[in-house]
Specification:
The complex is a heterodimer. Helices cover 0% and strands 54% of the residues of chain A. Chain A is mostly beta strands. Chain B is built from no helices and 13 strands. The chains are: A mainly beta, B mainly beta.
């Protein structure tokens, strides 16, 4: 069964610093990969998705992620953190066949310090 | 269209009572998913529909849970004889899949937070 591991349940960065949220997946076949963000009392919003078109994926709000098959990783980065980036971030994997149930990691809470 | 909506947003009930949640997907979306999210965890898949057909159910979906999408539009999730362990956020998501290829983006609603006392 597919699984997703997010290293670090809580990450704290200073405003303007690099954001790095780690995600590793277990799959024998490169899947579709996603990063979602969840603000308090809200649903999940898609940040970006990998669907094999390009290994470096750019998303909304200045976020990007790089798919590395050899490392089975899909880490999320942003060069400069803003206070508004404080939220819960989830990495998820789908089966390669298309719309199917997502398997989520446990999430990483990002705090941004002024 | 304003996105996926869920009703109610919050529900408090006593153990043993039945509850029903509703999800209205984005109007042109033919797939609808239910997930459950507990504190400190990511969402976990429960079940999903394509149009009115229920295509898959997770082992998490015990026989106390039932979901329907009678006309291929809105969906309901019912929990019978609620237990304290059912306390969670129940998330609905929808997407569109066409014959020419799958769109793989699921749009999530705000969720229904259930508290079982």
């Amino acid at each position: 069964a597919q699984s997703v591991t997010q290293l670090g349940s809580h990450v704290s960065v200073s405003e303007g610093a690099l954001v790095l949220l780690r995600c590793n997946y277990s799959s024998s076949v490169p899947p579709y990969l996603f990063w979602y963000v969840q603000y308090p009392n809200q649903g999940l919003q898609l940040l970006l998705k990998y669907t094999s078109a390009a290994t470096l994926v750019k998303g909304i709000n200045g976020f990007e992620a790089e798919f590395k098959k050899s490392e089975t990783s899909f880490h999320l980065t942003k060069p400069s953190a803003h206070m508004s980036d404080a939220a819960e971030y989830f990495c998820a994997v789908s089966r390669p066949s298309g719309n199917t149930p997502l398997v989520f990691g446990k999430g990483t809470r990002l705090s941004v310090i002024a | 269209d304003t996105g996926v909506s869920q009703d109610p947003r919050h529900k408090i009930t006593k153990r043993g009572q039945n509850v029903t949640f509703r999800c209205d997907p984005i109007s042109e979306h033919n797939r609808l998913y239910w997930y459950r999210q507990t504190l400190g965890q990511g969402p976990e898949f429960l079940t999903y529909f394509q149009n009115e057909a229920q295509l898959e159910k997770s082992r998490l979906l015990s026989d106390r849970f039932s979901a329907e999408r009678p006309k291929g539009s809105f969906s309901t999730l019912e929990i019978q004889r609620t237990e304290q362990g059912d306390s969670a956020m129940y998330l609905c998501a929808s997407s569109f899949i066409s014959g020419a290829g799958a769109s793989d983006e699921q749009f999530f609603g705000p969720g229904t937070r259930l508290t079982v006392l």
